[in-house]
Design a protein that fits this description.
269 residues; alpha/beta; 11 helices
């Protein structure tokens, strides 16, 4: 058993979709989460800036001697994952596992991507999907407003404004005939019930946070560094801006009170 924690980072609250999967499927693993709430969103930034932010986020998590680090951020996974970060621990992004899940799920080889502008323009999801299935058609839509909806907790299924925004984003994908949609930003799985109700049950949604955690599970088992099932795990959360807003929404998203486990960190130090 390796009791070192797993590090997870995102630009804000989005990566909590990965944390929620850990709490449900790998509750024995200790977690250190960093949400860069001061600089959210990453998706509208330049490639150079995203790489610099990612490097700082990783350096912060490495202080905790993590046994594995997850970039629970579609933008970082798309743009900065190719950067030569000097890391000793395994590093996982969300693009590859999500692409693999979509290729398995699609029946008509038409796959949609909902992600940030940076992720869509990078072509990362398309490249990974077509590596696995060259005949696949991939259609991408940049959905920047969805990040804001999650950061402000506008995620209820009966929220009229959120529903109308989602309708506008998914309309081109439905017109293209996709049968599978990757929620390529980890903020978006928090909106999954609402998105599903808009697109209908015939469309399969791929949760990028979930797929990254399942990849992490495989690595932990292969490297024999998973904690035993009787280990009582802990989770610690760090943010780069006000803690109260993060804690309030995180409590709702995770379904548990984490207020006492949230701490402020100036990531630029």
């Amino acid at each position: 058993m390796d009791k070192r924690p797993i590090g997870i980072f995102d630009s804000g609250l989005g990566g909590l979709s990965a944390v929620k999967t850990f709490l449900k499927h790998l509750p024995q693993e200790d977690i250190i989460y960093f949400g860069d709430t001061q600089r959210v969103p990453y998706g509208s930034r330049s490639e150079k800036t995203i790489e610099a932010f990612a490097e700082q986020d990783i350096a912060f998590l490495e202080q905790f001697n993590c046994k594995l680090i997850i970039a629970a951020c579609g933008t970082v996974s798309s743009v900065a994952i190719k950067s030569p970060f000097k890391m000793k621990e395994p590093f996982i992004g969300v693009v590859k596992p999500s692409a693999a899940a979509a290729v398995t799920a699609t029946k008509n080889n038409k796959i949609g991507i909902m992600a940030t502008a940076a992720s869509i323009s990078s072509g990362s999801y398309t490249k990974e999907i077509q590596k696995l299935k060259p005949e696949a058609e991939v259609f991408g839509v940049s959905c920047p407003v969805l990040v804001t909806l999650v950061e402000n907790n506008w995620i209820d299924e009966d929220d009229y404004i959120s529903r109308e925004i989602i309708k506008r984003y998914v309309q081109p994908l439905l017109a293209d005939g996709v049968d599978t949609i990757i929620l390529g930003c980890t903020h978006f799985p928090h909106l999954a019930p609402l998105i599903q109700s808009v697109v209908g049950n015939d469309i399969t949604l791929i949760d990028s946070g979930y797929e990254a955690v399942m990849e992490a599970k495989n690595i932990l088992q292969e490297m024999d560094i998973a904690n035993s099932n009787d280990h009582i795990a802990t989770a610690k959360y760090y943010v780069s801006d006000k803690m109260q807003n993060f804690s309030t929404i995180a409590n709702y998203l995770l379904g548990t009170d984490i207020s006492g486990e949230v701490e402020y960190k100036d990531i630029t130090e």
